[in-house]
């Protein structure tokens, strides 16, 4: 399990380099914020790095201005040069576009903010994305009812995002048969390089061949804009006076593809079949479509197998993706 999204703020003199993240000078942050907020008379009261796992450095800021008072926000530095060392080594180049997440906030989420309750966008300037700091727990810290609420939010998002800005299209990934074919090739190479037994490799190769015979079917599933990594660690749940607010974060892998791929991500992991059924029911999935969602869980497992030859996910997010790929056949 992870922890609630918190940050330890340290004195200015001590924060030039912290936890392997090199922070930008205050004046750089101030200049970008000035452009985003449209006002100059504000002060940065606190700032420091967030511990949230991501490809890019993330900071939590507290600022004060005459018009807004004190507010907390998150700053994400979206630049290839700013990528964290582990992410830069592990993330495949064909999946990388530092500006994708900013485009998603600008062209998709901001116009739908009232309908979906996503993190409010303050602006994007010089590679710095400023959004609301949501005071919520990561979904995997909460019970099944919150996961069902996340599935209901997902259904609303899939309905709203059918009509998105054409400006976004060039940035989006395409989760089609060719996409998963790439991961199948990479996963096969990585497993062969590893010290796994020949019997395990043969089991994978058999399952991969069967998967590739069926993968074109996913292009007939309902299509639309998807989050791409709708895992519990990328979903915040915030208690508000109006009820539970679901706020997905980390839109770096947003794309177009089978909408149930997001549902497959949400139901990946050590769930019982009964729990998966409850989450799928909350989404509104028909019984006849459950095997298709299971196939997409295998597609995601294959993607993780092909992600990197030696990258290890953060503790609490690790799964046996080979077992997941071999199951549900």
Number of helices: 11
Number-wise, the strands total 13
Radius of gyration: 20 Å
Structural class: alpha+beta
Strand content: 15-25%
Shape: globular
Q: Numbering strands along the chain, what is their spatial order in the largest sheet?
A: 3-4-5-7-6
Report low-confidence residues grouped into runs of 5 or more: 1-19
Let me know the average pLDDT.
Answer: 88
What is the chain-wise order of helices and strands?
A: EEHEEEHHHEEEHEHHEEEEHHHH
Helix content: 25-40%
What distance lies between the first and last C-alpha atoms, to the nearest angstrom?
Answer: 29 Å
Largest sheet data: 5 strands, antiparallel
Question: How would you characterize this protein structure?
Answer:
The protein has 329 residues and is an alpha+beta fold. The protein has 11 helices and 13 strands. The protein is globular, with a radius of gyration of 20 Å. It starts with 16 loop residues before the first strand and ends with a helix.
Can you give me a brief rundown of this structure?
This protein is α+β, with helices and mostly antiparallel strands and about 325 residues long.
């Amino acid at each position: 399990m992870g922890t609630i999204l918190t940050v330890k703020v340290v004195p200015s003199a001590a924060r030039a380099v912290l936890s392997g993240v090199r922070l930008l000078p205050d004046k750089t942050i101030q200049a970008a914020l000035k452009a985003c907020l449209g006002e100059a008379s504000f002060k940065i009261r606190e700032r420091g790095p967030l511990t949230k796992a991501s490809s890019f450095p993330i900071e939590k800021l507290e600022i004060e201005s005459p018009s807004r008072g004190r507010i907390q926000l998150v700053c994400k530095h979206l630049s290839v040069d700013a990528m964290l060392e582990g992410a830069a080594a592990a993330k495949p180049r064909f999946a990388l576009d530092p500006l994708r997440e900013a485009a998603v906030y600008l062209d998709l989420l901001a116009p739908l903010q009232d309908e979906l309750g996503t993190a409010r966008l303050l602006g994007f300037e010089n590679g710095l994305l400023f959004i609301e700091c949501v005071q919520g727990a990561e979904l995997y810290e909460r019970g099944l009812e919150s996961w069902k609420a996340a599935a209901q939010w997902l259904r609303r998002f899939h309905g709203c995002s059918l009509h998105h800005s054409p400006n976004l299209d060039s940035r989006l990934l395409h989760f089609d048969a060719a996409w998963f074919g790439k991961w199948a090739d990479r996963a096969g190479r990585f497993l062969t390089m590893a010290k796994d037994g020949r019997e395990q490799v043969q089991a994978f190769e058999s399952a991969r061949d069967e998967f590739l015979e069926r993968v074109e079917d996913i292009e007939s599933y309902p299509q639309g804009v998807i989050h791409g990594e709708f895992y519990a660690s990328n979903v915040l749940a915030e208690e508000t006076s109006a009820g539970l607010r679901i706020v997905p974060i980390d839109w770096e892998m947003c794309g177009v593809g089978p909408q149930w791929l997001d549902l497959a991500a949400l139901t990946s992991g050590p769930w019982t079949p009964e729990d998966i059924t409850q989450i799928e029911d909350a989404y509104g999935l028909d019984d006849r479509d459950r095997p298709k969602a299971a196939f997409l869980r295998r597609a995601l497992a294959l993607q993780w197998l092909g992600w990197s030859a030696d990258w290890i996910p953060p503790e609490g997010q690790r799964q046996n993706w080979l077992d997941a790929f071999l199951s549900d056949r």
